Amino acid sequence: MPELAHLPAQRRRTVLHHLEQTGCYLQTAEEILIGAKLAWRNHARCVGRKHWRSLKLLDARQVRSARDLAEVCWEHLRVATNGGAIQSMITVGPPRQADGREFRIVSPQLIRYAGYRNGDGTVTGDAANITLTEFARKLGWRGARTPFDILPLLISTPDEPIRWFDVPPELAREVELEHPEFEWFAGLGLRWHAVPAVSNMNLEIGGVTYPFAPFNGWYLGAEIGARNLSDTTRYNMLPLIAEMMCLDTRSERTLWRDLALVELNRAVLYSFRKAGVYLVDHHTVAKQFCDHVEREKSAGRACPTDWSWINPPLSSGLTPTFHRYYDPPDLDIRPNFVRRDFSGEA
């Protein structure tokens, strides 16, 4: 990697020697940070890659117990929240062991909301997290069954059963949603957390896999307003918002969903700004991504991109990312983040 060209030649010889003797090698913190930045730059599904150089590293490779790893995650949230000026951050735990055993976070993000099945077939909370919630309950966790119960963090280590840890309330910063014009909106009781710290992806750098590697940027407003709170498989808030707006929901031709969707997204942007928590709107981030693509082109680099992921879930045709082609995703490019799916089993 040209980003490591400044390292002395002796470092390369040392690594090759360790690989020959043991089949593995220990990366330096600098190598991990550079690799993590490149993994972000290479990840085809991220629209926020323009800021890949801003990533900060918390090196936790020497931590071994689930409790201590949880404490590291709390420090990650503290630093990343940064008083609302969200800091892009990655925490790297122990690498995968030679025998395949690993330290990992079972939870898909450091902060997720629970989802509970009700007897009448409805769901309280985030329907996307029903399986995770039921798994946590089997481990002994009990939530209050409100729409926004923060799930515990589930951590797996080679020498312990999966353990759960409640997220300290003071580190789970949330924004209560209100609307700049609709006074009734605050009464809906909607909220969302400030830091989108993804924790179900392996970080792969130079032949070394780090399963414990939670990382975050900052939210795109539409992630919250046009997906998390709007999807029928999540909070499905559009019918209620449309009702409160007195929209005609009898026909799709009235575009009631679209009207409600825009107002929900306005509420998200307004509320985060009022709370002093940074996020970005979909028009701004689309322009930033196009700038990033051109910068990569000028540097002689391809920019693998999954078109379906970098375009926003509302008003896509109004953004510049929609009206162009990109280098196709490269599943083999490394460094990169590689997703792990949660099966609902230990």
From TrEMBL:
The alphabetized list of GO BP terms reads: nitric oxide biosynthetic process
Top-rank taxon: Bacteria
Binding-site residues for heme, renumbered to this chain:
46
Q: Which InterPro entries match?
A: Nitric_oxide_synthase_Oase-su, NOS, NOS_dom_1, NOS_dom_2, NOS_dom_3, NOS_N, NOS_N_sf
Give the similarity note: Belongs to the NOS family. Bacterial NOS oxygenase subfamily.
Subunit composition? Answer: Homodimer.
Name this protein carries in UniProt: Nitric oxide synthase oxygenase
